[in-house]
Protein 1
Amino acid sequence: MPSRAATAPRAIESILRQVSRLWLFLDRFDTVPDYADDEGIEVLRSQDLGDLRANGKFLGLARDSRPCTFFGVDDDVLYPADYCRTLELHLGRWSGATAVGVHGGLLPAPVNSYAHDLKVLHRRAPRQHPTEVDLLGSDSVAFRTSTLRFDVRDWPDVNMVDLSFALTARRHSVPLVTVPRKAYWLSALDENQSDSIWAGVLRDDSRQTELAQELVALPRPPLPKRRSRWPRLLARAP
């Protein structure tokens, strides 16, 4: 987003050398910013590909059919140097059969209000053990495309990425798991912006509540059997 000009360069710098390619969706930019000028960045523009808003962060899945581990990231989060390596290790512990992430959420059944009923397992909070969740934050999610692949242009809603991703995963019987980590392993570069998606949810969560009700009505897929031990590296995450 153009309003993230202060945080996007730092977020990109923190993740760029951890991946083989960074798909950068520029949402309603008049020009391509200087921080997008890097050989490792593939720029996608809303003017060329549609008004996808936050959904555009997953558009790379439809642009390249080669198998990979796909990491969802945001323009206002600072990622540690071992971010991709750690999530990849956790995917390996589940044999790639889950999607894993940091920021998560749990929903009761029934859901009366998405904004008020959602229990957030925040990215800043420590977790001692992997936890199965109903939603993963798309700012900190990883999955293998051999397990889950989709085209966000098929989603009926925009700016409801976490719920849309959760519904897609559940329909494909892919469990969602938050990973253990120390407090503030991921840190926000900015929070509570007036133009944030969550600010919009707090104003009106009627559509999100409908999607949450649809999600909890679907059976949660069983977790696959884990491999024997969690890597020691994860206990030492800074």
Protein 2
Amino acid sequence: MIILYWKILLKPANIMIIKSGVKVLDFGLAKSQTPSDETATLSNVVMGTPAYMAPEQREGRASDVRTDLYALGLVLAEMATGKRTPALDGLPERFAHVVERCLETDPDARWQSASDVRAELQWAAKPQPTRPTRRMPRGIWALAALGIAAVAAAGILLWRRQPQAPPLPSQFSITLA
């Protein structure tokens, strides 16, 4: 019995938005679980779009679900930034965390399943509670600045008005008893 599985080649060109939602086209390569079966994709051949391949896939190493999650991270980054290179500057922190973990070079450091990514994306989409900030009205800041300036001016005036010590006589003596 031959067992086949499909390797999804996820990239923006394979994602179409249609009236009823989103469709993923080109489901990728069929690969046999039986090493001697040559009816499916050739063995020991690296296939796919290099720009969307995980490091282990480009190196011809074993691929699994985590390989697809790497490609998903690239697609998410490209959708969010409009650039193929995954520069995540300026993205919301939670979303960037999800994408960064998808793009880990070590498959063991990536999310282990699509359901993990889904849960994290749902978490990232939740509004973050904001801490109420207590801002002082502008008038209070102005009064505080005016008060500081007044105290500084008063200090300078008092310092200048201090009576000077009388000059010492040119000749004086100290008597010790």
Protein 3
Amino acid sequence: MPTAYRGDKATAFAKVLSGAGLDKLSLSPAQIDYLFQGYFAELGTMTSELASYAVNSLNGATPPARNLAETPFFKSFMANPNTDKAVADFFEVSQTAIETVNAFNQMAKRGLGAEAQEYIADPEKRMLIGASSAMRQIRDSMADIRKQMVLVRESQNLDPEKKRETLNKLQSVFNRLAQQGVSIADRLNLR
């Protein structure tokens, strides 16, 4: 993905800055937001939000309404109700499973049969290889949901409250899928 398009949750201001040439310096919109917040703390966040509001107004865009935990001042003190520890746990286990399968496949591809057999002699690695297909399917489903979330965020046909409601529902499904992956990992003692 080109640098200027990385960070679908970044502010509109950061997207404009990245698209205006900062992407040539490998600064994605998400990185620009991070820099503003890092250097200027809450003032940088508020400035970026105000500039994004102006950019959205000029473009006629209507971003989704925010949960209270997503607003600049309150997000310093509150947890976002849509984030879920299961998502982070799932991606960690899923990434380990994919790396294990890739390592095994590379050994097999290079004709290192003895090393491959020794590699999968470890019961945890066998379990990771066995779980990798299910993990991949869950990751693919989660990627589809993320794409739907981007479409909802960018939709000009929905009012901000309807966007927020739809995004909350999609995030809930996203979190449930991650929890299914974590449950698989727990049943196989992979965490």
Protein 4
Amino acid sequence: MTDLVNLRQLMSLTSGRSEVVVGMVDGPVAADHPDLAQTNIQELPGKTGAACAQISSAACVHGTFVAGILSAKRGSAAPAICPDCTLLVNPVFSEAATGSAAQPSSTPEELAAAILNCIEAGARIVNLSLAVTRSSSKGERALKLALDHAARLGVVIVAAAGNQGTVGGTVITSHPWVIAVAACDANGKPLNGSNLGSSIGLRVCAPPAAASPAWGLAADR
């Protein structure tokens, strides 16, 4: 799948540099995972601690998976796009009890605060492998202000389009500064479950592991 988005050649040229700081707003990360050993992972104060308390929780599994894609050791099962970059982990999803069917969730205000935290800590890229499902006008305003702030500072925001199978954008994917990534198959064709819209799918398409969160939600409770 790395060939589909032309990553293999780039990854052969560089493994990144520590001064390239990537913010990850997601679940907590099992930083002691062997594939993540010796990577430059830093914790930012968030809704929960950045380290997993329950390895099998949905929030930990997803957060660790996304961290692996970004910075796992080369040669591991994950693509390991930028293992030598600095990864700032700012969790917004709490760990539910093991076996719980509930999807981890957060509020738009908490997500906006996490984006601002990453920017203040020096992130030049912020990854959002999550989707907004419901939002109040107050929540949307908070997210828009955070994204506007990123745009003014030139901080790149990359966000999953989401996998609810809907047509249209959200406050995140419709923002002109956000790079919205749709999910596609090995031939580059958008998947039926991927969200699409005028601001989604026309710019970037990627395999679903990177483009569509399995559960990630940012919704008013």
